[in-house]
Amino acid sequence: MKIGVFDSGVGGITVLKDSLRELPNQDYIYYADIANVPYGTKPKEEVKRYVFEAVEFIAEKEVNALVIACNTATSIAIADLRKVFEFPIIGMEPAVKPAVEKNRTKKVLVTATPLTLKEKKFQDLVSKIGSEDIIEPLPLPKLVEFAENFIFDEQTVLSHLREKFSTYNLNQYSSVVLGCTHFIFYKDLFRKIIPESVNIIDGNVGTVNQLKKKLKESKGKLGNGEIVFYSSEKRDEDNKTLRKYIEILE
């Protein structure tokens, strides 16, 4: 079977890597909308248009399922996407529920893009689990910029994180949620400033488990692990970005 994995940029590679680990005998299309990244700081309707254009392109490749490996795209478009396309579409959302379930007496800090945090889908998620009083949002759009430019320099990123967390007493929190796939690249650096007693949680595991469930419900032949990469409708074959993707996957 053929699985599509879509993100605004490089962040979804973290989801693709986890999918390959759990589902190695599938074929994959990875689509990064690098012509329009970042999504998280743009107007909602503009981003929604980009998402539909990307998914229409991916649908032409006859995928059996699609993972929207982008919290922002999921929050603004997944309900409408599911009305249009017949194949299963698995989205991502900040892992607020598992974070809250770990400890309901302490606060949870949710990091994500500005658009994800202000969208109704996120507000509904928080309201549904009755945790408005302990959830605090923290937008970190600069991390998306770092990841898209393959900036993984510890000093640069850690300096930025220390600045953003400087006003927080992290001992008051039970968990920090990484609500953007780009942020997962920096998980080890988050840990350098977040106490060991505080959980760091992301949504990748839950997303891949949902993908596995949907594939069991579908009938199709196994693939051979082939991955085809696209950057905003242009196939990546032998370029710097493709080499970076492969390095990350290895």
Describe the protein's architecture and organization.
- With about 250 residues, the protein is of the alpha/beta class.
- The protein has two domains: about 1-90 and about 205-250, 3-Layer(aba) Sandwich (Rossmann fold), CATH 3.40.50.1860; about 95-200, Rossmann fold (3-Layer(aba) Sandwich), CATH 3.40.50.
- Helix content is about 45%, strand content about 20%.
- It is built from eleven helices and ten strands.
- The chain has helices at about 15-20, 45-60, 70-85, 95-100, 115-120, 120-130, 140-150, 155-165, 185-195, 205-215, 240-250; strands spanning about 1-5, 25-30, 65-70, 90, 105-110, 135-140, 175-180, 200, 225-230, 235.
- The chain has a six-stranded mixed beta sheet with strand order 4-3-1-2-9-10, with helices on both faces. A four-stranded parallel beta sheet has the order 6-5-7-8, with helices on both faces.
- β7 (about 175-180), α9 and β8 form a beta-alpha-beta unit.
- α1 (about 15-20) crosses α10, α2 (about 45-60) crosses α3 (about 70-85) and α8 (about 155-165) packs across α9.
- The longest helix is centred in the N-terminal third of the chain and has 16 residues, at about 45-60.
